[in-house]
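Quarterly update from the structural biology core.
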Amino acid sequence: MSFKVSEICNVFFNLEEKYNLNFQEIQGCYPWQLIRMYLYYDISRRTNTFGAPQQQSLSIFDKIKSFSPFFKNSLLYNPFKGNDKKDILIFDHPRKVIFNGEYRDIYSCFLVDFLKDSYSFEIMEAPYLNKHFTNKHEHVKYTDRIQLGSYIYKKFHKIEFSDKEKELISDIEKELDDAFSLKIDIAGIFAMHILNFQYDYKKYVDLFKKRNVKMIFVVVAYENQAVVAAAKDLGIKIIELQHGTISDYHLGYSYPPKTRLGGEIKYFPDKILTFGDYWINEESCPISKNDIVPIGFPYFEVQSKDYMDIPSDEHQILFISQGVIGKYLSKLAYQLADRLKDFRIIYKLHPGEYENWKQNYPDLVSANQLNNFEVIDNSSVPLYKLFAESNYQVGAFSTAIYEGLMFNCKTFILNVPGVEYLEDLIKKGYVFKIDDIDDLINNLEEFKPVDYDKNFFFKNFDKELLKGVIDNG
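Predicted structure, tokenized:
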């Protein structure tokens, strides 16, 4: 049985209120805060709310083959190597794209460029699929040493829970079983995350002291809780850079008041720098409105400007895919191409789907045989060019949907799990929610979107605002 995203989130919120879960300290940390997103993804996958992400997994051979670089990188790019002091550390996004001729993190590269001439900084880069793609720079260190140490630490340590802790764990497991009809090993999940946290936290405290760090930027704070905790405990300002869609049902950011009655959310950053004023509801976010700072999305600003004036094809429809809902979207795209022969259908895969789409999406394979259908399974064609050329876009809840709105694409959102993320856009009439192929065809021309302020989503890069954040904390 599948569930709505809102239903899963509300179960979490109710449990957090009932058991004060965000403030239950076990083994020197707050494990519910550590596992919150992990558990959400696990439940959504096991209940078939979302499909599994489609990106290619690593084989046993690949994992063994890639283990050796962990040792090499731990020696050559060890973040503890040297005695240099660094005012600022950046924990960037592991996934990189080619930008200005080299692999870069699109969310933090503007920050790096801003800091280069006037500030002392270093980038802490985690591997992506056990590899590093960026060019070697003197200001880049790899976190492989810490990940390798954490792996070894878990092999030689284990967690023993007290009777009181076991009782709480049993209560959580029963509540989740009642809600989702799933047997979930909360004890095992707690233990794994606590061990990771224990090792990582200590290492980051040592690193931040060694480098005499004054400020830390992080992309995806909810996957770097040890970084956040170490920074806060040392009095170092920790700031997150927005990397995607944020909504009241994104558990990385949503802690409604009733779930945070116990005080401060320990592993949440001090500030978040957003793409624009639109993002983050302060009622759900556990930091004040003054600490949510809209500085813009420079990558979008730079990459999109060459395509903004391209005339769109009134008969071109762009589908924006995502691995977790690709099975629904690919079926709809095939049906549409088969029925609307005079329209051109472009299906843009997510990079994580490039390798395996022919195995995972049989409808897409069939559609690709049609004369009016094209699958884009590489990054050689700029996404923003596709937006500019298309009169319509169809998708689910990808951040790219908002980017398509910047190109005036008439937007249709398929009613699949996760549609709640775009509930606000639907209610305001900026986009139209569809249930099936007939719903899409019937409203393709009929839907007239309400006018919206584009800068509300993605404002122009505000360098002075960023400078103020860096200089004043």
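The longest helix spans residues 186-211.
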